[in-house]
Amino acid sequence: MIAFIVILLVVGAVVYFKFSADPKELKERGKGRNAEQRQALRYFFNDGCLQKKVSDAAYDAMVDAKIKSLNAKEKAMAKIGLDESQLKEIDPVHFEGYYFDPKKTYSKRGKDGYWRSSAYQISWLFFSSTQVYLYQYTFNMDEDGKKEATEEYFYKDITNFATVSDTIETPYWDVKQKKIMLENVNSNRFSLVVPGDKFYCAMEQNEYTERAIQGMKAKLREKKNG
């Protein structure tokens, strides 16, 4: 009887280790990270059982909390250095969405079929009577990395506002093969076009962004023809 119990305990330990232990890649990437960053990495690198697993909903909640803590619009106004009363040509527009970079981010297709990334990007655009001001903030969930950018353009120099749909080859952790693989992920981005250059913003395509881009195009035509 004792031998049987010992066998059960050994088998149980093996099964627990197999299905809940962190992969080597997760342990390596988690070195020097804080608890939240390790949780984010666990979402991308582990489909284990019990407390080891981070669900799509849990990761979304982590990202949402980070977004709310940023106060991105207030950051944008501070960086631009103008009062909002000077930027009333049309209502401010914001775009946001997961940011995919084949060299810097990890990705995962959730159970809902939706691809998520370890980086997220928020962009705000403001419109004065002569210029468009753009502020962009990109942050990483798995590390302290962040990037801020501000740009300003005269209407006369802008060629177009557009939506770009393309595919980005991005790395993801293959649970079955236990290694990083590459997958083409469909991505929608907003594009501000000037001669010889384009400025991209990650975005979720929806009714708001469609209306916002149409409004921006109408304002640009007005300024070009005025």
Question: Could you explain how this protein is built, in words?
Answer:
The protein has one domain. It is built from six helices and nine strands, in the order αααααβββββββββα. With 226 residues, it is α+β, with helices and mostly antiparallel strands. The strands form three sheets. It has a four-stranded antiparallel sheet with strand order 1-4-5-6, covered by helices on one side. Strands 7-8-9 form a three-stranded antiparallel sheet. It starts with a helix and ends with a helix. The protein is 35% helix and 34% strand.
Oligomeric state of the chains in view: single chain
Q: What is the tally of beta strands?
A: 9
String of helices and strands: HHHHHEEEEEEEEEH
Task: Please state roughly what percent of the residues sit in beta strands, choosing from under 5%, 5-15%, 15-25%, 25-35%, 35-45% or over 45%.
Answer: 25-35%
Query: The biggest beta sheet, please?
Result: 4 strands, antiparallel
Distance between the termini: 92 Å
Average pLDDT metric: 85
Helix content: 25-40%
Number of domains: 1
Topology:
Elements: H1 2-20, H2 24-29, H3 35-45, H4 56-70, H5 72-80, E1 93-98, E2 107-109, E3 115-117, E4 119-127, E5 131-140, E6 146-154, E7 160-174, E8 179-194, E9 197-202, H6 207-225
Antiparallel strand pairs: 1-4, 2-3, 4-5, 5-6, 7-8, 8-9
Give a concise summary.
With 226 residues, this protein is α+β, with helices and mostly antiparallel strands. It is built from 6 helices and 9 strands, in the order H-H-H-H-H-E-E-E-E-E-E-E-E-E-H. It has one domain.
